[in-house]
Amino acid sequence: MTAGFGFRNVPRIACMVVIVAGFLSLGSLLPDSNPLSVSPFIVTLVGKYLAYAMLAVAVDLVWGFAGILTLGHAAFFALGGYAMGMYLTREIGTRGVYGNPDLPDFMVFLSWKSLPWYWWGSNHILMAIVLVFLVPGILAGLFGWLAFRSRVSGVYLSIVTQALTYALMLAFFQNGLGFGGNNGLTDFKDILGFDLHSQTTRATMLVFSALLLAGTMIGARWLVSGRFGRLLIAVRDAESRTRFLGYRPEQVKLLVWVVSAMIAALGGALYVIQVGIINPGEFAPANSIESVIWVAVGGRGTICGAVIGAVLVNFGKTLLTAWLPEAWLYGLGLLFILTTLFLPEGLMGLGHQVMRRRAEVTPEVTQTEGDAES
Amino acid sequence: MTDPTMCVSRRDFARFSLAASAAMLVGGKTARAAAPTGEPIRIGVLHSLSGTMAISETTLKDVILMLVDLQNKKGGVGGRPLEAVVVDPASNWPLYTEKARQLLAVDKVAAVFGCWTSVSRKAVLPVFEELNGILFYPVQYEGQECSRNVFYMGAAPNQQAIPAVDYLLGEDGGSARRFALIGTDYVYPRTTNQILQAYLKQKGIADADVMVSYMPFGQSDWQTTVSQIKAFGSAGKKTAVISTINGDANVPFYKELGAQGIAATDIPVMAFSVGEEELAGMDTKPLVGQLAAWNYFESIDTPANKAFINAWHTFTKSPKRVTNDPMEAHYIGFNLWVQAVEKTGTTDHDKVIAAMVGLKQPNLTGGIAEVLPNHHITKPVYIGEIQDDGQFNVVWQTPQEIPAQAWSPYVPETRNLTGDWRAPISCGNYDTAKKACLGTRHA
Amino acid sequence: MNASPLLELRNVSVSFDGFRAINDLSLSLQPGEMRAIIGPNGAGKTTMMDIITGKTRPDTGIVRFEGRDLTRLDEPAIARLGIGRKFQKPTVFEALSVRDNLLLSLKGLRSPFSLLFAKKTEVETFRIRALLETTRLAARAEEQAGSLSHGQKQWLEIGMLLGQEPQLLLVDEPVAGMTDAETMATADLLRDINRTRSVVVVEHDMEFVRALNVSVTVLHEGSVLAEGPLDEVSADPRVIDVYLGR
Amino acid sequence: MRDIRWRLALATIILTASGYMAVSPVQAQTDTPSAIQRQADQPAAPAPVVAVTPAPDAYSGLASTHFDVIAASIAQIGSQETPQAHDTLKALASHHLFAGNDGHALYIHDGDGWRDVRTGIPASPDPNQVHPVRVNNRVRLALAEVQAGQALVTGTPAQRLAAASRLAEHPDPALLLLVDHALDTSHDAALDATLKRAKAAIILSPGAPVSNPATLLAAVASLRAQGGLTSRAVLAGFAGNETAPTQARDAARHAMASIDRREKIWALGQQAFYGLSLGSVLLLVAMGLAITFGVMGVINMAHGELVMLGAYTTYLVQKGVLAVAPGLSGFTLVLAAPAAFVVCSAIGVLIERSLIRFLYGRPLETLLATWGLSLIIQQAVRSVFGSTNVAVSTPGWLSGAFQLGGMTITMNRLAIMLFAAAVMVALMLVLRRTALGLEMRAVTQNRRMATLMGIRTARVDALTFALGSGVAGLAGVAVSQIDNVSPNLGQGYIIDSFLVVVFGGVGNLWGTLAAAMTLGIGGKTLEPLLGAVSGKILLLVLVIVFIQRCPRGMFPLRGRGIES
Prior knowledge:
Oligomer: heterotetramer
Number of helices of chain B: 12
Structural class of chain D: mainly alpha
Strand content of chain B: 15-25%
Structural class of chain B: alpha/beta
CATH topology of the domain at 158-298 in chain B: Rossmann fold
Number of domains of chain D: 3
CATH topology of the largest domain in chain D: ABC transporter involved in vitamin B12 uptake, BtuC
Largest interface: A-B, 66 and 67 residues
Radius of gyration of chain D: 31 Å
Largest sheet of chain B: 7 strands, mixed
CATH class of the largest domain in chain D: Mainly Alpha
Shape of chain D: globular
Distance between the termini of chain D: 75 Å
């Protein structure tokens, strides 16, 4: 399964992501009259998809390769988003409706007099980048250390991750927490002095996201393909066996878990920049479940599948919510059911099957893949 | 790249993205054919049809479809038919952003009617300002906002909350001297309560006689809160509850009130988010006498309202569908926009925005809604008591329409702010003391 | 005098929900010794292995390996001390190739960070080749372990055990499901291994135990019933009682 | 306290009119003439269309648009012991009283005919020229007072007792005379005690005639002994009255403290009740999941939707009963429970046969498929019933509350607790005592062996899932009594249900019970201390930490067979 089809093609798909993003960005800078011109709407849309794809890669890392079904990964995504959102909020400066140079609008209106301590340094992009990785990393580390050490696994772990993101959602909904309550952070103006609403910034951000996604994909592939990756598979399939070989599976899982959380957080940061809003709704357990579904649709344990699943499902959602605003949930629900029933290995598995069928007619392919399921 | 095992060929991918772009350009579903000839004018409908907000917003989508239908039967706008583009932002705030952008950039709609929650409005605000769109927002809200691209057709706090408190303080409302402010923890209740606390203080109510409590969204277990209200009411002073509980959570709240036997004659509850639509899901017998403050009630007997209700029943083919305040707000907003387009003879956003201020539209319940320079409107305020048939009986109303204050004089930070989108000020948050526009101003 | 024993269990007891799985069990194993453990179902054989390898913690009693207290260590720590275990049901990493299974078992790198940047060394390649020979799996080295036959999986697991280079091997029913020829070959392999390492074998198959030709411990209801050469033990009336039932 | 004066007058009038007036208290007498004068001076003055109308009388105030005038008029009419006054007030209470727009004419319109109030002669007013008499809380209060006053004097013993209790809860100084009078004529011990309570409350209420300190102290002592929040409210009002004697006010303060102490203890019991009732709701919604998820291992994300369908079934049954046999409307819930069970079981079988059975052994994929299913069910319900709430009514015997000492026990919550217990017991019996239960356990513990023993596993799977779904439907019936019935209903419960099952230990119904009650009571204990949100967050964190310590929940299944 690891040597599967979506996995081997990671570098190719990664390149493709960058190339497509590059074309779209260039196209969006062309005048409308040009036949190759791309609507700016598509640029922000694809930017959002890529951020989601990053989250999907993160989910795939822990679910596909370490066997941890997470129902709470959107929490790390959202935390990364908030860390970036804090920086973008500070960048607004005096351009908020109250014109307060120090306090974001929502604090002014709650009659806060000064910034709470955890906003310290949030006006520096470097601090933002550090926070994007550090906060979800530490939370994931703490959570994972406790959970894996005491061998919480299977559905127990899934439900606990769900409880985690649910608790965070409730916390962030509170206005008293200092992150804007239900409204979250929004109405951003600049990033590093560049106007977020300008087409050039948008196009650049898209290419930047694509590059980061491609890098993440290749990095993830590297992580799971070496000897560490083999151990990861071993832990996924027979965790207790690895213990008797002298390995500590909790360490292995913890490492992947934290890395995955950071990838999700990076996705969240890119998301906020391109979508322009972050609020507690991102912590909703439904979002985490959806991210798992993207991976399942694309194909678990293939990295490529995660990216393709995330983009396709979200693209479908965009289309259906516009075409069939009253019936699109039927389509989406049916998609999930049909995928699990008929494509247990996702779209990548479908590709795999097609290839195998083709391989049967082409004699030079000697290697036969064993069936992972016994 | 000749490897036969490649998952998707580059050509396929290109085709896919082309299909994507094409699909984008086609845009959203268009609703019902139009009678008048000429190039149709598209208007966007941005209301959640699924998810948690569908319960409130689906009706508003139907209202706009009805208004479009009626307008087209009257010959459209300036001889051109209207066409509603309906999308579903699925109660997901970032999806509102995406859909707003789609409506403005891809469907190129002349105006958008949409949003319910404050957060959805805040989410789309930057998009409307960036792409210079027009949004008609139909729901009562917390104020403290004044965007050039938004027309606020719902009540500002001074058009709902303050008159409601006045009523409770007065003899007809029971001369309440103790207030429990119960709300859902989000920006509308927070702001409204902040304003009300300042107002109550000014009216001589001691801090100890005001209790503030916030509950999470979708709270379904109100036992503790209701018993706290009962205990709070046992201090020997007439007590009233001011509820800013968000739509969904109201049903279990009222069910608990009824179960614990709190009658409106003992501790009246004044709600700002409970309308006919919410009551439709409840058995209102235990709630008779509980109060709500709105700018419209279905029960108000005027010819215009009767006609509107009839049209609504005909359109929905259901004589049971109720009407409510945000529906009237859409009615007003839609007609104001039609007026503006007909007056300017164009759908050009800048011209329409400029033409809006000063336009007048009769309310369904009598009186006139006038668009103010701060893009809010004048509104009458009604206080209704819940009846056992699920309707409200108006027990008090303002003698004339009240102009909206976008910025509350009871919040220290906004005491001096005013919004005026006419030249030469042309600013949503103009500081009258400093004589300066805070934040960005429209060129 | 005997040198200090390699493995020593003294007065070990453990119970689950009131059921005494191991009851005051004492057992010791000298360095280089091979011991067969037999006993009816539920005698506590697997639980004893669980206690030695750290999977189950005894309620009372002492467990020592080379004088070290094992009751305070967890499975990986005990494995790193040099105790290898083969399970009753063969457990190999089915999604990995035979070669990768062996690679993971090789003594050496154990921390996840060191694995991240590990390169396969010449020595490792050589060791794996040797193990493939020993377990007669060289021809299937690149196949997924899941596609092996039951007997081959047993052998692969023994190969993985050898890759760990343990001082003590705990082998739980190694010949279950094997043909007679495979069984005898396995007995040969274990005797071969025993030349350099100590071995504890749990087995039902008396032919196999006889072929091993080592002293036997009979477990019954969680404690030692009899100990000694197989012929002697199998003549013991108590043992006959236990096996035939009264 | 302008109101008080005319109400005092009212009391005098009632007594005089009824021929009961024995002594005329000085205090009342002094105010009476002017008060009556004022009444008379106020003939629907603000009514805008005052044409040449007949002379205003006690009734014309009802036609006013001003609530104070209407309330005053009610008081006046209440003092007239005539059948037409009685009819008028009755018509007002049942919305049958209409007023002419001229500010004078009054008609009763019950059934199809119109009748003039003053003459009783059938009339035919122009429907556009009349409006229902305006009613608000103030008018309702005045009406209730008058009716209580009348009942106290002329009612049956039961009515008198009810009126006295009402007075004890809503002390009204204007009715002091009536209470005194009733006390003189009362020979019933229960009524006597209630009247004394009412009198004590009235003496201490604002606007009451001045009493001597000893009377006041006795009243304070009486209320102190009585306890409860109403007494506390009266005492608090009295303690804040600066014109009252200091000694009595101090006593009132002490009495309040004493009541507060008692209330605090009762509050613990109350909190336990709230906790148990929240726990029962959690238990109900989690029990079905404990079967489908706990026993079968199916991660059924559509569980909440099954609960929702149960609630909608209740709605349909209510609607059906109202249409077919309105007489049975009190028993709709009794009918709805089996209906919901059957409907949801049937849907459960459908889901199992068409979806779940292809996914056994792949628990995580059941999660994805059932999530898709939950979206479809939600949207289907939205298409059929609309996205707004539907009204499920609470039958009379389930509404309201009763006092248990200082605790308020709400009927609907109590019913849900009993219902949850009954479902739990029934489920236990099914699992332990029936062939199906035995087969179910056999199949979950060793499917292969069960097949070999001749158990039709496919049938058992379908029935098990049906049972779990049916129980979810039952939960829906209960939830419809306390929550919104909307397509979103299920979403609100799914996370909590999973948490309960996992916290309790998968596959163990006792664990589910313990977890539900722990979460319920824990939540309700933390809520007043930390607030609802923080309390819930803390509870979630505690559960997370707990599961780290005990990775298999509170009551893990143990033994050799359970492998990680």
